[in-house]
UniProtKB/TrEMBL annotation, chain A:
InterPro entries: Di-copper_centre_dom_sf, TAT_signal, TAT_signal_bac_arc, Tyrosinase/Hemocyanin, Tyrosinase_Cu-bd. Keywords: Copper, Metal-binding, Oxidoreductase. This is Tyrosinase. GO terms for molecular function: metal ion binding; tyrosinase activity. Its EC number is 1.14.18.1. Residues 332-343 form the Tyrosinase copper-binding domain. Gene3D superfamilies: Di-copper center containing domain from catechol oxidase. It comes from Granulicella mallensis. It holds the Pfam family TAT_signal.
From TrEMBL, chain B:
Residues 1-17 form the signal peptide. The keyword Signal applies. It comes from Granulicella mallensis. Keywords: Signal. This is Uncharacterized protein. It comes from the Bacteria. The keyword Signal applies.
């Protein structure tokens, strides 16, 4: 079923102009902001590729640092293991801080004062960028082997310095770790080694067992499962990172998701841009967690597939898994390009909200709790512990002075909905009526654009049909595009089916009401609806009808197709 | 300050404890997937979108694949950051309008296996499925 609504042409034009004006003003104001000092580019751009050179240089330097240095490559990953939020409303803001300080470290370590972390826009490139298989940009490189050849080697290298670090943590940091479930150092290390201090069923004489599900450590050879020869995300992950899914994830207007899971009400959920609210960012995701679309789908599945998570095309259904499947995922350098893209999408969502004059933060009741959440484990670009800081400090990108080269998702900014926020509506094409059916001559290029986009619907029909009367009580009509004249029983899964238009007020007529109404219906995104498209040089003749849903001949009064 | 209008419960695989049981979706094993039919209370109206709320139990590193009866891919649930022994939470999956047949969605749930095979999910792995309508309004 397609999106549709009732309107009149006059109302449509009035609303369209007003909304377009507001959106244009918002965009103008946004453009008036001072440029950022640093710009994060797409990794596929020339600037993004150049940044990878500095990135690799810094990684090598961080690998060479001793284990007791806070900017050692693996020590940096432990900041994530010890403090990262997932499945709650601090997901974006915590990772913004983590990425921002990491970017400072890369500048220091590379000697490139202009470095900015590139982003991997998987909606445009559903594979690991080729450059990310070069040298230390992949965790299977030989440079990692001296530290991560096996668990014994890794433990000998990093555990003493981590124990020393743990012993110097502040009471506030210990409190955060306790919330996370780490009462002792061993609790945390068990998530690295996979040691589970409970016996397996039937082996009560043993003190515990190794559980691959809880093993964050990944030995060098299997640290990343995708290769230069096989860099593609699977088809199912491609669906999760597709433009359609990402666009949907940007649509919610609430900041956080609220799910009244156990309350028997008809409206159980307010889907938000962020995952569900929790009392602490260290609350581990579990039964009550609701993942937002962008965190739950593209974020999670990209992580897991790179790390060899079970599933389609995966070589290892039962583990052991690579780095990206767990909380030591920052060991894989692709982590930061992946999260740069997530951070970019938060920026896109924020600017979308601003353009619509909608809130982009939690509501006034929730905001204090959100803002004062303590983030206590960051390390800055000089290798110093940042010390006590709170979420509020990381809401704005100005904290780190960067912005983004536009990538996928910008399209949503300024669009209240697909129709009303049209930036440059093109000339409409009016249908030539003959016997309650219309023939329109549409540009083949416009149709191809409409069909090729897997997200936006660019062709809409303004369909005018009669209101129900005593003699003709039909209230619902199916709009058909390109259907054979003798076709019957056209259902919603037909390629010719554009949508259903309906009157909700029966035959009641209010003062001034006309005997017909106009609805906006997206044209089908199926090529069967546009016969001869492939052979058409310039224009394609398209027929449109509106038939009563219960059957019968077309009652179409008029139709105009608008391209947005 | 409030969302204009929200959503409607459509179906549970298993009713939640403490709640009024909603109509139970007809769920059956169909080959290598569990199949159920969910129905919207009304066709989507202007500004409305359909979403699945899929609540997942303890599945470790397994995944849940969601498709329509015709094989259209709706998404892939791949838990991340879940500690061993914990349920994987609820996932919000957008449902494209073209995946609906009128008010109905025939949903297939499966667990990808090695070699490109799939098996049907169990009721422990997917504990609840709801199809809801969202209308994103003024935010918060």
């Amino acid at each position: 079923m397609s999106i549709y609504f009732e309107t009149t042409r006059r109302d449509f034009l009035k609303t369209s102009l007003a909304t377009a004006g507001t959106a244009a003003l918002s965009r103008h104001l946004a453009l008036a902001q001072a440029p950022a000092k640093y710009r994060r580019y797409s990794v596929t751009s020339q600037q993004g590729q150049k940044a990878l050179v500095s990135y690799a240089k810094a990684i090598q330097a961080m690998l060479n640092l001793p284990a007791d240095h806070p900017q050692n490559w693996f020590r940096n990953a432990f900041v994530h293991l010890m403090d990262c939020p997932h499945g709650n409303w601090w997901f974006y803001v915590w990772h913004r801080g983590y990425l921002g300080y990491f970017e400072q470290t890369i500048r220091t370590m590379s000697g490139d004062p202009n470095f900015a972390m590139p982003y991997w826009d998987w909606s445009d490139l559903a594979q690991i960028p080729d450059s990310m298989f070069n040298d230390v940009l992949t965790p299977v490189a030989s440079a990692y082997e001296r530290y991560t050849k096996d668990l014994q080697t890794f433990t000998a290298f990093i555990q003493p310095s981590l124990k020393n670090y743990w012993g110097k943590l502040s009471p506030a940091q210990i409190q955060q770790l306790n919330i996370r479930g780490y009462k002792t150092f061993d609790d945390m290390w068990n998530d690295v080694s996979g040691w589970t201090p409970t016996p397996m069923t039937g082996h009560l004489s043993h003190p515990g067992h190794f559980n691959p599900e809880n093993t964050a450590f990944a030995p060098t050879p299997i640290a990343r499962y995708l290769t230069l020869q096989n860099p593609q995300l699977s088809d199912s992950v491609k669906k999760n990172v597709s433009k359609g899914t990402v666009y949907s994830g940007l649509e919610p207007t609430n900041f956080a998701t609220t799910y009244y899971q156990h309350i028997p009400i008809a409206n159980p959920i307010k889907i938000g841009f962020n995952s569900s609210t929790t009392a602490s960012h260290n609350t581990a995701p579990s039964k009550g967690t609701v993942f937002s679309t962008l965190e739950g789908l593209p974020h999670n599945s990209t992580h897991n597939y790179i790390g060899g998570g079970a599933g389609e095309g995966s070589p290892i259904p039962n583990g052991p898994w690579g780095n990206m499947t767990n909380n030591l995922s920052p060991v894989d350098p692709i982590f930061f390009l992946h999260h740069s893209n997530m951070d970019r999408l938060w920026d896109v969502w924020t600017r979308k909200q601003q353009a619509l004059n909608l809130p982009y933060l939690p509501n006034s009741q929730q905001l204090p709790s959100y803002e004062k959440e303590p983030f206590l484990f960051y390390v800055d670009g000089n290798g110093k512990q940042v010390g006590p800081s709170i979420a509020k400090e990381y809401i704005s990108m100005s904290r780190f002075g960067y912005d983004y080269e536009p990538g996928y998702g910008e399209e949503i900014i300024g669009k209240r909905n697909l129709v009303l926020a049209a930036k440059h509506p093109t000339a409409s094409v009016e249908g030539l009526m003959k016997g309650n059916a219309a023939t329109l001559t549409l540009s083949a290029a416009a149709i191809k654009t409409h069909l090729d986009s897997d997200t936006a619907t660019s062709l809409f029909a303004l369909v005018t049909v009669p209101r129900p009367t005593e003699n003709s009580p039909n209230r619902e009509f199916d709009v058909l595009v390109g259907a054979p004249a003798d076709a019957t029983n056209i259902t919603a899964d037909s390629p010719y089916y554009a949508g259903k238009v309906a009157f909700f007020c029966g035959m009641m007529h209010m003062s001034g009401m006309t005997d017909e109404a106009t609805f906006i219906v997206p044209l089908p995104k199926r090529k069967e609806a546009f016969a001869n498209l492939s052979a058409a040089a310039g224009n394609v003749a398209v027929t449109i009808r509106a038939v009563p849903s219960g059957g019968g001949a077309s009652v179409l009064r008029a139709v105009t197709v608008q391209s947005l | 300050m409030s969302v204009l209008a929200l959503s409607v419960i459509l179906a549970f695989v298993t009713p939640q404890a403490g709640s009024t049981p909603a109509p139970t979706a007809q769920s059956r094993q169909a080959g290598d997937a569990r199949e159920m039919t969910l129905t919207l209370p009304h066709a989507l109206r202007k500004g409305e979108t359909a979403w699945l709320l899929v609540t997942v139990g303890m599945i470790g590193h397994n995944q849940i694949q969601l498709t329509t009866q015709s094989g259209k891919d709706l998404g892939n649930i791949s838990p991340f950051g879940i500690r061993s022994g914990q349920a994987a939470g609820t996932y919000t999956i957008p449902v494209p309008a073209e995946a609906l047949s009128g008010r109905r969605l025939v949903l297939r749930l499966s667990v990808p296996q090695a070699g490109g095979l799939h098996r049907a999910t169990t009721t422990e792995e997917v504990t609840s499925v709801r199809l809801v309508i969202q209308r994103f309004g003024n935010g918060n």
